[in-house]
Specification:
By secondary structure, this protein is mainly β. It has no helices and eleven strands. 29% of the residues are buried.
């Protein structure tokens, strides 16, 4: 079992950058494929990025130019670097390891 806690979400302006973190506890993340997802109000949860245990990264085409997923297994932490943020990036961002989810961190983007 792994416990995940996201952080780093905040109110930023359009065009800003933000880095989210997902700290894991109770178990090492080293063997897990990890992912970031997001959910805006009234919308379904959306896949943002995935990184395998071996470090292979995958993104939807709409996000691959602005978002970067990274893992630091020594720190048991997953990261999401987001650049050139847009209004439509505003959402609650969740990290995932297999069937385990964090509680989410809110990203708000203002003009």
């Amino acid at each position: 079992q792994v416990q995940l806690v996201e952080s780093g979400g905040e109110l930023v302006q359009v065009g800003a950058s933000l880095r989210l973190s997902c700290a894991a506890s109770r178990s090492s993340i080293s063997g897990y494929t990890m992912g970031w997802y997001r959910q805006a109000p009234g919308q379904e949860r959306e896949w943002v990025a995935t990184i395998t245990a071996g470090g292979k990264t995958m993104y939807p085409d709409s996000m691959k130019d602005r978002f970067t997923i990274r893992r630091d297994d020594a720190k048991n932490t997953l990261y999401l670097q987001m650049n050139s943020l847009k209004h439509e990036d505003a959402a609650v961002y969740y990290c995932r390891a297999d069937s385990y989810w964090g509680q989410g961190t809110q990203v708000t983007v203002s003009s």
